[in-house]
Every structure is written in C-alpha cells, then in structure tokens.
Amino acid sequence: MKKIIITICVLMFSVSIFAQNSMDKKLEELYLEEKYDELIKNYASKDEDYSGEAYYYIGKAYYMKSDDTNCIKYMDLSIEKNPMAADAFYFKGKSFQYLDQYEKSLEFLKKAEELNNTISVYQSSIGDSYYNLKKYDEAIEYYKKATKHEKVDKRPFSMLGQIYSEKNKNEEALKYYYLAKEKDQTKAEEYANTVFNIGLLELLSKNYDKAEKAFAEVLELVPNDYHAVAKMIQVYYAKKQYEKAEPFREILYDAKKKNLLPEFMSDKFCFYQFDWKEYLVQVFERYENRSSGGIYYKHIFYVVNKSGDIEFTVQTEFSPVAMELENIKYLLCSQKGSIHGNSGIGFNDGFDFDDLKSAAIKYMENLTK
To answer: Which is nearest to 196 in space by CA: 179, 217, 165?
Structure first.
C-alpha cells in the first residue's frame, strides 16, 4: 500500500512540473512572438502562483510596453522564486534607469553582473547609470569592461567615444568611435550618427581628408542631414577649396526656401572656424540677402574665449547708405557689448573669402589692443 501511495505522489509531482514547464514555454513563445498585450491580459491579471520563469516573462512584457512599475513588480516575484536569476535583476535595474532612478538602478545592475559577469550589456548598463550620474571615471571603467567580451555591441564603444569627446581627448574619442563603427554595420540612423561624430572629431583634429570622407558617407546614408552639409562646407573652407563648397551651400539655401532646415540652422549656418590667439573664431553666414531696406548682418565672425563666451563679433553689414553713395553692399563692422564699430572697409557679393578673413583679423587685432 505504501508503494502505491509513493507512486501516486511521484506521478502528481511529475504532472505538476510538466504543467509548469508547459506554462513557462507558452509565456516564452508569446514573448518571442511579441504578443505582449495578450501575455499581460491572459496571465498577469490572474492571481496564480507561477514559476520564477513565468513571472520573468510577464515582467519582460511590461518592460517592452514601457510599464516600468509593473516590470519591477514581476521581476521582484521572479527573484523571490529564483534569487540567482541574473536577468531578472538586470531588467529591474533597467526599469529603474527608465524611471531616472540611476543610483537605485546600480544596486540591481551590479547584482546581475555579480551573478553573471560574462554578459557585456550588464556592464554597459552600469556604465549608463554612472554616465547619467555624471560619474564619468566609473562609467569609463564599466564601459571598458563591457568591450572586453567576445560578444559585445557598439554601445560601450560609442559611449567611450562620447565621454572622451566631452573631455576634449579627441584621439581617444576617435579610437572608440572607429571601433563603434566597426561593430555596427546596420547603415541605419545610429550608424550615421557614429560616422558624423568621427567626421566632427577629424575636422577638429584638422584631418580634413578623413573628415570629408566621413561626412560624405553620412550624406550618402542621410542626404537631408543638413548639419552634415554645413560641416562639409567647413571642410572645404578649411582646405581652401571654396568652389567645392558651393553645391553644398546651394543645398542649404534651397532647404531654407522649402522650410526644411532644423531650427538651429534656420537663420544661419557655420561655414568656417579657426583658432586665433587664445580664441576660437566661428564664421557664420545668414541666408538673408537683399539690396534694399534696412541694415542686416550677412557674415558674422564670433570671437569665442576659452570659457565659451563671445567676446565680440565682426560682421559684414548691409549698408543702404554705402550702396547709395559708393556702390558698396557690405561694410565690415563690429559689436562689442553695447559698442558698435565700423572699420571703413567695404565688400560686395562675390568677394574673395581670404580677403575678408584677412581684413577681419586685422580689425580683430585692433579691437583687442
């Protein structure tokens, strides 16, 4: 009789395990098929005692629906059933990230890494929390850990490029952006952003041929990236290949007419920049172009100090008086605080840029004496 009872108990236990495994498999299939609403509707609302795996998939469904509060709830239930479930700790930490609770997210992301330190995304996510907390040295440490794995996506490389760029360590930044580019062969928007950053850093490093190549690739992928169009103009002005810049200038003027430009480029665009003494000089061109009416600025040299503040500007000003008396369209003038100055030097359309730059520098010399 005892043997029969034991056999029945074992059979019931086996049936229970089979049923639970079947439930886990069903929830996994729903999740993989991206049927998140169906999964939540049919299983999250039921007051049942699921396995840790089942709670995990319900939590992930909420995660994919951007319901971070419920994701955390079900990941807690999963962890209660299985305290060694690294993925449950990871998604709980990610949900706290999306709730902007970065300090709290670190507790669970680090627990996930402690349980399994072979997954790069755990370490990369810890880096993300430190980055958002502006603890850049700690972020660098974890992003670098993430890059050491055989299976790793581009994110830690990209973020290392971004941090080193913010620290003005352009050589290090370029190294990691190029590695990010190698990792990402999607040719999608994020790939284009990586290549744009490469072009920007190569331009700042005065590697103009490499910058030209990068921005050309961006524009091949995203022809309407008008920021990249303006950067291409900067490249050609830096190389003194002014005629090559003209087609790109025409693209911007045409986009202006069609109201296609992003807001920060809607009035003017930077077409050249150079170092002068302890200043950075950024040269902008405004789209406005007329030969009558009131005064307007066409080309503006912003003289920027090391703190990033504009010390003064030198600009070409449309002058109706000069047009009437001397047939000169623009006068080279300045603005320093409330003081307006006039150099007495005039230019018309079609001027040689080197002549304008030379005159502007002489005028800037006078203004800083």
So the answer is: 217
**In the chain, where the domains are located:** 152-260, 267-369
pLDDT at 1: 47
Q: What's the pTM? A: 0.84
From the options 3.40.50.700, 1.25.40.10, 2.40.30.10, 2.30.140.10, give the CATH code of 152-260. Answer: 1.25.40.10
The per-residue pLDDT for 291 is 81
What stretches of the chain show up as alpha helix (H) in DSSP? 2-32, 36-39, 52-64, 68-81, 86-98, 102-115, 120-132, 136-147, 155-166, 170-183, 189-204, 208-221, 226-238, 242-257, 320-326, 353-368
* Residue pair 320/291 in contact by the 8 Å Cβ criterion: no
d(CA 154, CA 177): 9
Tell me: the pLDDT tens digits for 173-183?
999 999 999 98
- CA gyration radius, the chain: 30
pLDDT given at position 160 = 97
pLDDT per position as a tens digit, 285-298 = 999 998 888 899 99
Q: Residues 272-284: pLDDT tens digits?
A: 999 999 999 999 9
Which of 261, 209, 259 has the alpha carbon at shortest distance from 235?
209
- The H or E element that residue 300 is part of is strand 297-304
Residue found under tokens 């072009």 = 199
Helix (H, G, I), strand (E, B) or coil at 290: coil
d(CA 92, CA 74): 9
Number of Cβ within 10 Å of residue 11's Cβ equals 10
Section 53-64 average pLDDT = 94
pLDDT at 327 over 60: yes
* Cβ pair 199, 231 in contact under 8 A: yes
For helices 120-132 and 136-147, give the axis angle rounded to 10 degrees. 170
Q: Which of 234, 299, 228, 224 is nearest to 254 (CA)?
A: 224
What CA–CA distances, in Å, run from 105 to 64, 99, 114, 366?
18, 9, 14, 56
Cα distance between residue 189 and residue 228, in whole Å? 13
* Residue 258 and residue 287 in contact, taking contact as beta carbons nearer than 8 Å: no
Contact 258, 252 (CB under 8 A): no
